[in-house]
Amino acid sequence: MSLILENISKKINHHAILNNVSFELNEGEVVGLVGRNGAGKTTLFRMLSGEVQPDFGRIGLDDRDYIKTTASHDQMFYVDMPDNWLAFYTPKRIKSILEVAYIKFDSDWYDEKLKQFNLNNNSRIQNYSKGMKALFTIIVSFASRAQYVLLDEPLDGLDVLVRDQVKQLIIDRVTKNNTTVLIASHNLIELDMLVDRILLLKDGTIDRTFAIEHNKNIKKYQLAFEGDAMPDFLRNNGTIIAQVGHIVTIVFDNFDEEIGIKLAGSDFKFIEELPISSEDIFRASFANEVSAWQQVIGGEA
Amino acid sequence: MKQAIKLYGKIKSNQIILIALLGILVACFVGGINTYYGRSITNIGSDEGLGGLLLAIMLLASGASVYTDQTRHLNTWLSTQNVSRRQIFLSKLLWMVIGPILFSNIIDFGMSLASQTHNLSKVLDSNLDDSLEGLFLVSLVVLVSIILGPIWPKVIGSIFVLIVSSSIFELGANYIVFDATNVIDNKLITCFGILILLSISYYIVGTIGVESEHEIVRIPVLKWPIVVFVFLSTFVFNINENAFNLNSFILPVVLGLITFIFVFKPKLSWQK
């Protein structure tokens, strides 16, 4: 079973939020969705879940039109947690409601996880802390036993120990139930440990789909340059992540032989290749914007 | 449809029970007062009985409860479920309108039976009139609430339509040829009106999404008709209440202008 998005476009208040977004989610996959603030991640989630209808394009569940086939809507679970009706109910009541909404709702697992994470069954969700709300959302999402679970910033507000447990819980559900999970997050370090691939949303469209190990043309280096000024080709070809004196950490979005030869030249005291992370790829994807800020900051200084 | 009724009923069960309890409490209160003071407030078992009062109170409570669906983003979530928007609309109508109307009638009829009144047929007839009238007004409010987005325009718009509706229908009745004294005709016309209003609402809910809930007027083509409606209905209301003179235009123009500003949000600037 696959969820397919084809050329999805959406305008809100005459402003294009999404433009020709296309991708596919396969069974048992954990996919990350990243993008800058306001890139349209939440709009995309709302569209996938059926809250908002696309102006153009198709969302298909295999060969069926997902939006029009309301009977298949229990295949997907998404709640927009900060603005949600669940907050006014207790977990006990929510269970009784979701048992009606989701035919395969796993009540035993739900009760077990609430107990495991010490979430009060008789307290309204609005009385929970931010972390507890996030935790509850994850529990309720997976208890629905929906094939597709959409999580918007799931690890936001969780302490390190709970975060580890939640990550384990996501992996466990995906492994046992073959659930497909789409996670929108700004925490790229956490995403690296969870996802099979990452979709990068830029300028209203999926600019890039990547898995860390498949990005041979993106490279990260730490190097020390000779002389007072940094060689120009570094700024022109890469995104500078950090600079302390003559030591620079840089990501090259399109690393090629020419850059390699320049780096091996006499301009540098030493160079060392560092392991690449999603955060580096994210920075490299927004190299122009980062460069503009750096110039502004440089000018102010 | 069954799933929509079951799901909405389950989510709202506590509030539905509270509305029913409110009805029972009002009935007990009025019954107690009547017994104590000798039918001085509301006549149980008379043709102008408790039914209408109960109906109004329960429908008001239901309306408030339905409005919270929007503030709590329940409508948004329901639109992601395996039920259609139109099925949700019908479920709401069933639980929050038809349910309270039936329940208030049952209470009134039950209390009439208990008080061993002799005019049960008149009580039934009065309840039918009240129910149809109530349902007609609710249908108007429902239509207004669907067309308008945020809660406050819904409330103000509904109150406005309820106030001016009597004048509009009076004016309409003068142009439509029917025997106003014929009670069955009146009931049939009310039923027909309810059906038309609910059909329009049913059609609209299937065509608009929850993303338009923040818009004052959710259907762009209705923006101008709404401004014109506010102007004309206020004008008709004014000349119905008072004799026609130049002052009759003041309130319609003011309300029309206010509506225009809220609907079209013109950007005003004093700088050249």
TrEMBL record, chain A:
Gene3D superfamilies attached to this UniProt entry: P-loop containing nucleotide triphosphate hydrolases (3.40.50.300)
Protein name in UniProt: ABC transporter ATP-binding protein
Domain ABC transporter: 3-228
Keyword tags: ATP-binding, Nucleotide-binding
PROSITE patterns: ABC_TRANSPORTER_1, ABC_TRANSPORTER_2
Pfam families to which the protein is assigned, alphabetical: ABC_tran
PANTHER family assigned to the protein according to its UniProt record, in alphabetical order: ABC TRANSPORTER ATP-BINDING PROTEIN YTRB, SKFA PEPTIDE EXPORT ATP-BINDING PROTEIN SKFE
Entries under SMART domains matching the protein: AAA
GO MF annotation list: ATP binding; ATP hydrolysis activity
From TrEMBL, chain B:
Keyword entries, A-Z: Membrane, Transmembrane, Transmembrane helix
PROSITE patterns registered for this protein in UniProt: PROKAR_LIPOPROTEIN
Transmembrane segments: 16-37, 49-68, 89-114, 134-152, 159-177, 189-210, 222-240, 246-264
Listed name of the protein: ABC transporter permease
Organism in which the protein naturally occurs: Leuconostoc litchii
Lineage, opening ranks: Bacteria, Bacillati, Bacillota, Bacilli, Lactobacillales
